[in-house]
């Protein structure tokens, strides 16, 4: 299954944001990687800014180029603002919903939980991280997986009221998607309009 497996701290430093989760290296070296680090004076072109924003979104959600392009085409065909719809589609991915519910500490960990069959969707085991969760569907942890250390540690002290589009049930260790998130409900600092401009060329 295709996914990014390269150096994560280097990518986080490139964008100046902890896009893969908490990063000790980023807090110590909050400047871009490479020989010149913070001394780069050349102004980034418009295309460079657009490409950078697309890469930031891809790395943040753990999506490769073909998947991302297909998702953009789907967003274009949908009603609404293309950039917002794109982010909403990314948020609806099962691995992202597992992460947002606090079942896993990072999206990469959420992806692993899904592929290893620890996650259920509407009571059935689902092992496809890219599956789109629809409003009204319930995402939870398999009964025999509820005692997993990674799940217990992630849920400990997690604030489940952070995302108004998700509802958490502590007794069943499951969450329900109430509705598709509005742009204001998505905390990622991604300038989606730049991505739209890049693909519209």
From TrEMBL:
InterPro entries: Ribosomal_uS4, Ribosomal_uS4_bac-type, Ribosomal_uS4_CS, Ribosomal_uS4_N, S4_RNA-bd, S4_RNA-bd_sf
Keyword Ribonucleoprotein: yes
Sequence ranges assigned to domain Small ribosomal subunit protein uS4 N-terminal in this UniProt record: 3-91
GO MF annotation terms: rRNA binding; structural constituent of ribosome
Keyword Metal-binding on entry: no
A GO cellular-component term linked to this record: small ribosomal subunit
Pfam family, one: S4
Subunit (UniProt): Part of the 30S ribosomal subunit. Contacts protein S5. The interaction surface between S4 and S5 is involved in control of translational fidelity.
PANTHER family from the UniProt entry: 30S 40S RIBOSOMAL PROTEIN, SMALL RIBOSOMAL SUBUNIT PROTEIN US4M
Function: With S5 and S12 plays an important role in translational accuracy.
Name of the protein this chain belongs to: Small ribosomal subunit protein uS4
Organism of derivation: Porphyromonas crevioricanis JCM 15906
